[in-house]
Hints:
The structure holds 2 protein chains of 2 kinds. Chain A contains no helices and 11 strands. Chain A has strands spanning 3-7, 11-12, 18-25, 34-42, 46-53, 59-61, 69-74, 79-84, 93-103, 106-113, 117-121. In chain A, strands 2, 4, 5, 6, 9, 10 and 11 form a 7-stranded mixed β-sheet that branches. Chain A has a 4-stranded antiparallel β-sheet with strand order 1-3-8-7, with no helix packed on it. Chain B is mostly beta strands. In chain B, 0% of the residues lie in helices and 49% in strands. Chain B contains no helices and 11 strands. In chain B, strands 2, 4, 5, 6, 9, 10 and 11 form a 7-stranded mixed β-sheet that branches. In chain B, strands 1-3-8-7 form a 4-stranded antiparallel β-sheet, with no helix packed on it. The model of chain B has no long low-confidence stretch (mean pLDDT 97).
Amino acid sequence: QLQLQESGPGLVKPSExxxxxxxxxxxxxxxxxxxxxFIRQSPGKGLEWIGSVYYSGPSYYNPSLxxxxxxxxxxxxxxxxxxxxxxxxxxTAVYFCARQAVRSKRLQCFDLWxxxxxxxxSS
Amino acid sequence: ETVLTQSPGTLSLSPxxxxxxxxxxxxGVYGNFLAWYQQRPGRAPRLLIYGASTRAxxxxxxxxxxxxxxDFSLRIDRLEPEDFAVYFCHQHGNSPxxxxxxxxxxxx
Lengths: 123, 108
């Protein structure tokens, strides 16, 4: 069955760029039925939606992060990616990737999640 | 943004008892697009309920969701040991998508 797996550095220095990948296995990222999203979880902010991207590129972002975040898809690698610019300690969190159904052009809830990867921002 | 306030923060119960968790939205949730997730320590959230009341595939029928507009609830009947966990509500009807702060069901 479909599985998601996050990968990326566990430690990032302040002001640098955080890059995470989410590999999709057991199925294709090319589907008209789903978007692919990132959510993060921290003790201070709880669960926070970062954004969601379609296989062909259209994406939605949380306005609170829009200026620093970018989502992209690599269909040849069957993965999607997140970059967060100018990170600070408040970006320290567990980052999850997840699958999100779309119906009538509306994003639905997240029905399948990766296990998550912890990212610490520290010098 | 739509703020989701969950209560109680923590519920202490014994196996076999029932739990009712509340999720109140700061404004009406469009389409009642409200989901519930269960999260066990060190694990990712797992979808339990979507559309306020529809059980996701694999969700036991002791879990039930209800509500509309701004007020939603999750009920767990006959608590099993594996049900002691943190539960989050999530709305995807309004932009941006938001999550509640969580309710912990702990074993008494």
